[in-house]
Design brief:
The protein has about 150 residues and is of the alpha+beta class. Helices cover about 20% and strands about 20% of the residues. It has helices at about 1-20, 30-35, 100-105, 140-145; strands at about 65, 75-80, 85-90, 95-100, 115-120, 125-130. Strands 1-2-3-4 form a 4-stranded antiparallel β-sheet. A two-stranded antiparallel ribbon has the order 5-6. The chain is elongated and about 75 Å long.
């Protein structure tokens, strides 16, 4: 009986010792008020929008990270499916500024603009290139879209 009580005590001590020494999480969720990023790729369902017809619509339109303004900080571009795409300039310390309108990457002709961040071995700047995605069953691949 005494051995069993001792074993339980040791087990409880080991469990208690392990509880406070966990590793810090790799990522921390930051609120839009902290970062300035308010983008949400909202899908508004209706009769002609469904998962059978638009298989990839619900996967999202994409995110690109690159130093667009050549300040040494990674900027973020969020592509929207049914909402306007947004470009956020990194101001440092996880603070971002929406520069979509100023950069000219907003909606074109009533449709959200798609962009492709590109970079070459000789380029010192990351640039955005127009990348329209057509409606309907025949969709352009990213490989041919911006070449």
């Amino acid at each position: 009986m005494r051995t069993r009580s001792f074993a339980h005590s040791v087990a409880l001590l080991l469990l208690a010792a392990g509880c406070g020494r966990g590793e810090r999480p790799l990522f921390e969720l930051l609120r839009p008020a902290q970062t300035g990023i308010t983008f949400a790729n909202t899908i508004t369902p209706h009769d002609s929008v469904n998962v059978q017809r638009d298989v990839y619509l619900y996967n999202g339109a994409g995110v690109a990270v690159g130093d667009v303004d050549n300040d040494g900080l990674p900027d973020i571009f969020f592509a929207g499916n049914m909402v306007s795409s947004r470009l956020y300039r990194n101001k440092g310390k996880m603070q971002f500024e929406d520069v979509t309108a100023r950069a000219g990457v907003g909606p074109r002709g009533g449709r959200p603009a798609r962009r492709w961040l590109t970079s070459t071995a000789t380029a010192t700047w990351t640039s955005t290139s127009p990348c329209p995605v057509p409606n309907g069953p025949r969709r352009q691949s990213a490989r041919t879209c911006c070449s």
